[in-house]
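User: My advisor, Dr. K., asked me to get a structural model of this assembly before our group meeting. I'm new to this, so sorry if the format is off. These are the inputs:
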Amino acid sequence: MSAHLPILQVVVPLLAAPLCAFLRNARAAAVIAVLASWATLAVALSLLGDVMSAGVISYEIGDWAPPLGIEYRVDIVNAWVLVIVSTIASVVAPYMITSVEDEVERRRIPLFHAAYLLCLAGLLGITITGDVFNVFVFLEISSLSAYALIAMGTRRRALTAAFRYLVMGTVGATFIVIGIGLLYVMTGSLNMADLAVLLPEVWDSRTVKVAYGFLGVGCCLKLALFPLHLWLPNAYAFAPSAVTAFLASTATKVAVYMLLRFFLTIFGAPFSFGVMGLDRVLLPLALAAVVTMSLVAIFQVDVKRLLAYSSVAQIGYMVLGLSFASVTGLTATLLHLFNHALMKGALFMAMGCVVYRIGSVHIDAMAGLGKRMPWTMAAFVVGGLSLVGVPLTVGFVSKWFLILGALERGWWPVAVVVLLASVLALVYVWRVVEAAYFRPAGGDEGTREAPWRLLVPTWVLVGANLYFGIGAARTARVAERAAEVLMTGVGP
Amino acid sequence: MSLDLFVSHYNYWVVIFLMMVGFYILISRGNLIKKIVGLNVFQTAVFMLYISMGKISGGTPPILVDPKGEGKGHGGAETVGEAAAEIVYSNPLPHVLILTAIVVGIATTSVGLALAVRIKEAYGTMEEDEINRIEAETEAGE
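Assistant: The format is fine. Below is the predicted structure of the whole assembly, which you can bring to the meeting.
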């Protein structure tokens, strides 16, 4: 049984999805979705434990030996990302039940859960596989279901947002296929570990460099690196609340992982930083993302949109860590994958509670909510503090490592920009806090606190923000080891 | 670039041309259906790239051939093994990969078309500029 954990990680949600679709019963589908999500978390945690103690796990699908057969390969890096994705899934799935009943047509609910499970299976698949073409297949599974999920938003703009995401996402995925094809032409292999061995011989070839470019642009479209982020704000703003919470804390994280995998494991750090000068390309883009998107977030009136722009800025931090080309920088990136998932998950789920009660997240509609929905807004405040990077929250830990990485390279202006952007984050978080706590309440007097079925999952993530903010040593240790694996190439 | 090089790589020129045509349609057209058509042409270009790279000049389809006509099929493993060394096979793997990619492409197209239908129902139009105008108006009205 435990030998087959890597395949179970993907197969459980993949098989649960059609089950949901066939049952046509909202309650049953919801229960299946929750159980499947919890099962993936159990599998991911046990995989991480195995990898930490025993090293890389290689699983041959259908007993076909790699490099010819498809291999699932788990090392610390993807075990870590698997834990991130499945943790968020297990918290969001129970939250989804109540939130979705409110926001999605009843007859569509089983299909909604099916699409969610497919998306989860796709994201886990991208993360666990050791075969580059398999990455593309899972990428499309997760993307197609994500388009469907976003289109189920209550307002009609969800449809146009999903369509735009579909167009840009497909272009990104096609770019990735082109890159994979060019790599195959040069090496005749699709296995990641095999490619890592074969590629150094053909470093000088222009084909490999072009493949690098296509893969880079494709991944950056998927992870919404400024200026390729245009699909993201509307998609997050108009999707159902639970979908936003799920996608914002998993989809872009997996895309960042994909970028790290392609650039550091397959091409290798010496090629990326030495030959291609990746650090010099990513640094300005990351800094531009952090500063401009934080500024844009300040002027948003729709809070979900505000948080979406803030997500693009936070992705800038992750890419910034990569551009330091050091173990400390990568530790910051990997830590921020986890930490940002926790904080944005908590924030978007708090916004879901607000939508559930007042049906809007317009900043004026939220006036005076601090008194009427104290728990929800308290969750927002803690999540917001974490986003700013206040000590004792996870946000502080990521920024700490990021600034360490910048100083290690002697780039103190970058450290200053990071601190400055935190002030910008404080401004946009404060705008919401000011509306909720310091403005007189308008509108419906009878607004009550959100139901516990929404509050409990939200506060689980808020608690995680504090828990891993105070006890950061545990996550930092894993992230550091993962960063070392990435920098040194393929592990044993 | 010599003419020989240009001609011998004609498959790449076809791919690049198709890809740019698809990309241009995608960017320049406001009609959602036309955008999906553009996306399809763009994807097809990549299919062609994969399919053409599997071809080896003088290669046969990748089915085990028994040139002497003996041993009917799987019978004479030894003779087939010897013959295989002489015969050049085209690479089937890119074709198989692209079979998967075509399925993905169809799925993308159908999701895209389904969204276009829903957009038509919700907005009464499929022209991007009109949708933007309607969205801007409702935004101002709220």
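One thing worth pointing out at the meeting: Residues 36 and 109 of chain B are 7 Å apart (CA to CA).

User: Perfect, thanks a lot.
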